[in-house]
Every structure is written in structure tokens, then in C-alpha cells.
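Blackboard transcription, Thursday session:
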Amino acid sequence: MPTRNSPDLLVIGAGVVGAACAYYAARRGLHVTVLDRGSVAGGTTGAGEGNLLVSDKEPGPELRLALYSTQLWRELAVVLPSRIEYEAKGGLVVASEEKGLSALREFAARQTEAGVTAEVVPGGRLRELEPHLAPGLAGGVHYPQDAQVQPALAAAHLLRAAGDRVSLRLGEEVTAILTGAHGEVRGVRTPSGDLHAPYVVNAAGTWGGELARLAGVQLPVRPRRGFVLVTEPLPRLVRRKVYAADYVADVASDSAALQTSAVVEGTPAGPVLIGASRERVGFDRSLSVEALSRLAGQAVLLFPVLATVRAVRTYAGFRPYLPDHLPAIGPDPRRPGLLHACGHEGAGIGLAPATGRIIAETLTDGELPLDITPFRPDRFGGGEA
Amino acid sequence: MARDRSPAELVGAAPDAAFEITFDGRPITALPGQSLAAALWAAGILAWRTTRVGGRPRGAFCGIGHCFDCLATVNGEPNRRACLVPARPGDAVTTQEGHGHDDLAVR
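(Written on the board underneath:)
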């Protein structure tokens, strides 16, 4: 086996996005070192539900990225072990009243024009799809392309499947970005020494803004906290990913205040996961009883049967969001050699393969699968930090 | 020369009169203040649940409410921690299969 002094690429962040960047770069023949100050999937990836959604995205650049990523996840599901718990289960968005349903129908019609498969389900047929749904809902839209994965396992198996070309350095924090005479990236510094490479990918998720600052550029990534409530193990009780139509509005909202809208899904392991809350409170990890009680209440409105089972634990995470709710993907013209792959907000698990593929194609002068102009990392201006 | 040194003897307990509970329909004697797990153990019963995936037997492990291994169906309610639930006269403990919520499953 050949020994190498330095890799072609350093990926900062061992979440699912960093893992996907490493995976696709390795498949293009690059040697990659992945660094993380914590563990694999130790940040936002491990705090997610594993949503691979097209249903919550309005037509535009993020939906195009999601549709492409959905296709890549289907391919990955064949290559990666079944332990990643990939389920092409579909999503069901429901509206309690006629007014909400007509807005949902209109939204779905626009999505359909953009390539999404969406089927309107009348209220009377909802319980054929989901027998435990509350009676009396106005109707919904079924999205067969929505899927789910166990995010921590998916990140870990992506890294493993990348093979010998990827090496992993955990528990190592990047303290500086090394640059050359012309400002170009030369590597990174960690407490155990300097690592050299011509390219550095910022896959630091919610902490991507800090890493950008180390590189001397601005990227306004901010945390948006979310809680997930976990029930005791149950048999298959919810077939799809089921959520209330208000969720789409909450995702797109710019409000800092607490927002909750129930997203309910079963898992192969048994527990039902109940999301999703959103609030901007910095990196505060303290438990919000209000958020949890609202989630529980809204979940029971959708699925009254949940009132008879126990919620046994909860976890919180920080979605990395940028002001226009789009990720930053691609080279940073302000710092040659630096690329960004962060800021995916609550959609990072779903968008990871497309992001990784774009990074790999960029680095190997390959063909980009879609226009990445909307994701330009320097679009917020600010120049150098 | 073995001596019978039960926990009750060791602490010099003087409990009130014993009463009856059932395990899978079979009568068992319990003492006031005893947990269901303690009463089951005293009757020589070590397993009252089967695991979700492999169907393997489970009973009390930590005994202090932390590990959730001792889950049992008590008076029809699944997932009660037998090590924490005090025995009451007439309690019906039944072996819990897996998550104990088969009735909720959709196919």
C-alpha cells in the first residue's frame, strides 16, 4: 500500500455532510482526511430524525438539490449496509381544515411542476394510508419520494464505505487555517500539529461560521434549536412520515420565537420520533418543557393513540441556518482552496449526498449535476472577515 | 450449614399479612411493601418479558428502575417496571411479549 505524506483534501466535520464529501471525493480518486473535534455524527447529524424530504420544499434551488439527493440516497441505499435503516416510506402532509388543505393543494401543484410526485388524498381516504390518524381531518398530500434514514449510522457507514482513501481524525479541533504567500489554503493546524493539503472543505455544520472566520472569511451560519421527543418502542404504528401542513410555514419562517408543528414517524428500532420545534436561542442546550409539551400535544392531535404510550426521552440539536435558508456549497472565491459544505438547516441529512457529489465534482473538474450559483458561499457579502 | 437469611430477616422486618397476586394466572404470595419483581423472585420466577427482536427471556437486572429490563404487563398495562411497582392484592402480572403493544400495530 502506498504511503502518502499529505492528503489531497481535508474535510472539517464528521457529520453526514462531511462524510458524503469524503465518500464522493474518495470515489473520484482523491485522498481525504476527515477531522472532527468531536465524534462521527456528534453534532447536528446525531440530533436529527433522518429526514430525506422533498415534500417540505418549495420550487427553487433547494428543491432541485433535494430531488437530486433523493436519487443519490436511493443509490446509496443499495451500496451501504441495511443498518443505515433507509426506508423509502413516503411522506403524508395533512391539513385539519379546508382552508389549509387548499393552500396545501396549491403548494403541491407547484411542486409537481418542479418534478415532485404528489398525490392529493381526500379526508375520507387518509385513514386507509394511516389507520391511526385522527378522524375528521380535511385531507392531505402524499409524497412517495420522501424517505428516512438513521442519520448517525448513515454518516458512519458512508465514511467506512469510502475505503482506504479516507482517514479519520477524531477529537482534533482545527485551531487555524494555514495559508500560503498568495492567501491560498495550505492546510490546517490542530493541537497535535499541522496538516497540509491544497483544499479544505468546511463541513462544520452549525459551527461552519466559526471555521470560516478562522479562514478569514465571513459566513453567517446561525443555530436554530430543535427538540425531538422519543416514545417507548412500539410496533409499526405510523407508516409514513406524517406532518401537519403548518410545518412548511415554520421551516420557511424567519421568526426567532418558538415554533412547533408535529412531524411524526416510526423507526425500524421501534420508537416513534416526534419533532419539530424551531427557535433561535443560540447554543443553549437547556430543556424546554414548553417546546416538548407543545410537540406532544400536537402529535396527539394528529395521532390520538400516542396519548396512550409513553415518551421516554428527548434530544436537542442545532440546525445550521443561513439568512436565506439555503446552504453554502462550493469554492469560496475569497480564499482559494477553501470550499464550503454547510448551512443546510434542517435538511442536511437529505441534502448530504448531493452536496458531497458537488464538492467532489468541483475538485476533480467534473460536470456539476446542477447550477450551484444560488449556494455561492460569498453571497452574503462582507468580504474578508 | 446454610441458614435462610432473607432480606426481611436481615433487617428484622415484621410485615403485615401476606396477600395474593397472580403471574400468568398462577397464584403467588406477596408481602406488603414488596415490589412485583421481589415477589416474583421470591416465587422463583426470574423472567416475565421476552425481547422484541429475538424473543429472549428478561427479568429484573438493575433492580432500581434504571435499566428497563424488568418491564411487565401489570393489570393489562404494558411496560411497567416490576422493580418499582409495589405489589397490591389481586395484581395480575402477565408475561409481556416484546413491546407489549401488538394491539396498536398497523400492517
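Lecturer's comment: Chain B has one domain: 18-98.
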